[in-house]
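User: Here's a chain of 196 residues. Predict its fold as C-alpha cells.
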Amino acid sequence: MSSAAQHLPSESPARGARNRRTGKAVLSGVVAVGLLAAGGGTFSKWSEEKAIASDDIITAGELSMSTPTVFWTDGTGRTIEPDTYRIVPGDTIELHASTTVTAKGDTLEGALELQFPAELQKEIDELAEAGYVSYDVTFSSGAKTTQDSYPITKNDNGHAVEAIATFTWDADKTTDSFGENADTSLTGTKLVLTQQ
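Assistant: Prediction complete.
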C-alpha cells in the first residue's frame, strides 16, 4: 500500500459557487419558514376575494296616512254640525273620515280601521244589543268598498280612503223620555292603520 498522501479531487470554481448559492437559498427558505411560524403566519392554498353588491342599497317601505278630514251628515246627506245638531228618534247621522294612504312595500299587507274609545264602543254595543241604535262602518276608495276594516296593499299607495260610521236611532223602540238631553263624546275616536 502506498504511503503517499491521498488527495480528494478538487471542485471546479464554478461548481463550488453554485453549491454555495444553493446552500444560501435553502438557508433563506428555512429562515423564512421560521419567521412565518414565529409571526403567526399560515400556509394556505390559493384564494381570492371579490366584493358583491357593493353598490346595492336596501330601502325600507312606509305605511302611513295623512291627517284625516272629518265631517258629519244627516240621513239625507246634508252636512251637519254635531255641536249644534239635535238628534231625535228615527234620525240617521253619519261620521265621515277620509285619509290618503302611503303604502310602500312589495309584500305589504295592512288594514285601516275606525276605532271608538273602549267606553264609547261598549255603550254603542249595549244600545245596539237592546235595539235602540243600529250602526255600521263602511270603507270606500274608488270602486272598492268593505265593511268594518279596509285591507291595504302597495296598490293602495296614494289613494284616498273614506270611513263612514252610520248611526240610526230606532224610533219604534224608543218610549217615554228615553235619551232626551243625553250627550255622547266621541273624543278619542280615531283611524288606525296597522301592518298585518
